[in-house]
Amino acid sequence: MGKPQPSDWLSRLVVAIDRTMRRRLGIWEFSDDPDCILRIGLIRSRWEMTLNDGTVIRRGETIGMIHAWNERVPPIPPTGADMAWARELRRRLIRSLQLLAQAVREDPRLQTIRGFGGAGVLHFSPAILRLLERLGLEIYELPPQSLRDRIEELVSRVWTWLMRRTFNPPSVEGRGLEVLSRRFYWLSREKLLQLYGNGGENYDQ
């Protein structure tokens, strides 16, 4: 996908803020493959998690935070999300995870990272949950939240809605913040390499 062409002042502002925040947070494109729709950043985990393969993510441990490369996410057609769109999204996600596995092996910044994910805001519909789980990601509800957590979640939901409005307008038409929620999503280094490290030949498609 090409670069977005903002059509109003709010979209242009969102693009500018997004660019600034990526630079300040050190989020980078780990591949220049045109089918890659993910970016990566390094953060300290605020949570302690035990993943299904036994990987334990400690609080304070550096993890790889997976971000959508919004300009490249397949746009929802005017008629709405359909099977063709879902297949293309799935294809690009699989390709992106293959490229991430390659980066994990080759990029010195990712050599010691044992877990990828974090807390993300998404429309976690049953179809999206099935897709993410088929891709190997583990999805968890957030634990009881403090006031700070609730404020942070609201800000995250508003920002995600604005990003979708800017880069994929049909995805928010007729939808408000109520369709978005914040959950944990995790993929261990070992599972990433097992499923996608050999070009995805171990991924059950």
Outline the secondary-structure elements:
Blueprint: H1 9-25, E1 38-44, E2 49-50, E3 56-57, E4 62-68, H2 83-106, E5 115-122, H3 126-134, E6 138-141, H4 147-167, E7 181-188, H5 189-196
Antiparallel strand pairs: 1-4, 2-3, 5-7, 6-7
User: What's the gyration radius in Å?
Assistant: 17 Å
Work out the helicity level: 25-40%
The number of domains: 1
Q: What is the N-to-C succession of helices and strands?
A: HEEEEHEHEHEH
Order of strands, widest sheet: 5-7-6
First-last Cα distance: 24 Å
What global shape is seen? globular
Enumerate the spans where pLDDT stays under 50 for 5 or more consecutive residues.
Answer: none
Whole-number mean pLDDT: 88
What does the largest sheet look like? Answer: 3 strands, antiparallel
> What is the β-strand count?
7
Discrete helix count: 5
If you had to describe this structure to a student in words, what would you say it looks like?
By secondary structure, this protein is α+β, with helices and mostly antiparallel strands. It has one domain. It is 39% helix and 19% strand. The chain has five helices and seven strands, in the order H-E-E-E-E-H-E-H-E-H-E-H. Strands 5-7-6 form a three-stranded antiparallel β-sheet. The chain has a two-stranded antiparallel sheet with strand order 1-4. The chain has a two-stranded antiparallel ribbon with strand order 2-3. Strand 2 (49-50) and strand 3 (56-57) form a beta hairpin. Helix 1 crosses helix 4 and helix 2 crosses helix 5 (189-196). It is globular and about 45 Å long. 21% of the residues are buried.
